[in-house]
Design a protein that fits this description.
This protein is α+β, with helices and mostly antiparallel strands. Helices cover about 35% and strands about 20% of the residues. Helix 6 runs antiparallel to helix 8.
């Protein structure tokens, strides 16, 4: 197992500490504006260039359980026997308190709105999903060779959902391993385009920023995955930024599945 770490010119000394404590780590220097998608794409490209049996996407704020990687690998190896185009296995992530499932595999209950996901989760069984959050995702070499890397049109968000949906269309099997594999709290809504305590001008800047819904990448995503009604989906976050309804509790919908 080898580690590829994207350091997007972080000012806190992370890269130098990692280089000293874990000298075998491949540290990939970013441009300073890579954000999530750019950093993950650089690391993934470097790993793909070397070549491995599996590739694990892992966010720096996701803390894994001791058995997470072995469970993901076991599920992936089992799935590969019946997956002609390879498999992607997603790990479910909970809040630090354990009260919420925060990230993982997702389905889109409304087919024309592949912008509103429901997290798919099972305590006991490995289950199917349509796409995923990129916090903890194991991709087989066969799947990676078919899907390739993250699309460079995406700067920060959307790249993971797009990757999963493209993989599904290409016949890759997408699975969520049973149980929780790690911990990561969701980002708060305060300070985002949904925060009605902020001025309209500030909400408008945030929603169109790289960490919001930048118009061109968002248009690519909605046109690619939301069918003929894509323009309606494209407009929704901008309308919400203007209206800024009272923020509800920041907890995603979860579809618990059992066989």
């Amino acid at each position: 197992m080898e580690v590829f770490l994207a350091d997007d010119r972080s000012p806190d000394g992370t890269a130098s500490v990692v280089a000293r404590m874990f000298p075998a780590t491949h540290i990939i220097e970013g441009s300073g504006r890579d954000y999530w998608a750019g950093g993950m794409r650089r690391s993934f490209a470097a790993a793909l260039n070397v070549g491995f049996d599996f590739y694990l996407w892992l966010n720096d704020d996701t803390l894994l359980t001791n058995d997470a990687i072995s469970r993901l690998l076991s599920a992936a190896l089992l799935a590969e026997h019946s997956a002609d185009n390879g498999a992607i296995v997603v790990g479910s992530i909970s809040s630090a308190s354990g009260a919420l499932i925060t990230y993982g595999g997702v389905n889109f209950p409304i087919w024309w709105r592949r912008t509103t996901p429901t997290i798919v989760y099972s305590d006991m069984d490995t289950v199917r999903c349509e796409s995923f959050n990129g916090n903890c995702v194991l991709i087989s070499s066969k799947a990676a060779s078919i899907v390739g890397n993250l699309d460079p049109v995406f700067t920060h968000g959307l790249a993971d959902f797009d990757y999963g949906l493209r993989a599904s269309k290409l016949g890759v099997k997408l699975l969520v391993v049973a149980g929780i594999v790690g911990v990561c709290d969701r980002n708060p809504r305060e300070g985002t385009y949904l925060d009605n305590k902020l001025s309209l001008a500030k909400r408008w800047r945030i929603v169109r920023s790289d960490k919001g819904y930048p118009p061109h990448p968002w248009a690519v995503y909605t046109r690619r995955h939301c069918g003929k009604l894509w323009i309606l989906n494209w407009a929704i976050p901008y309308i919400r930024a203007i209206v800024a309804p009272t923020m509800k509790r920041n907890s995603p919908a979860v579809e618990k599945v059992s066989k």
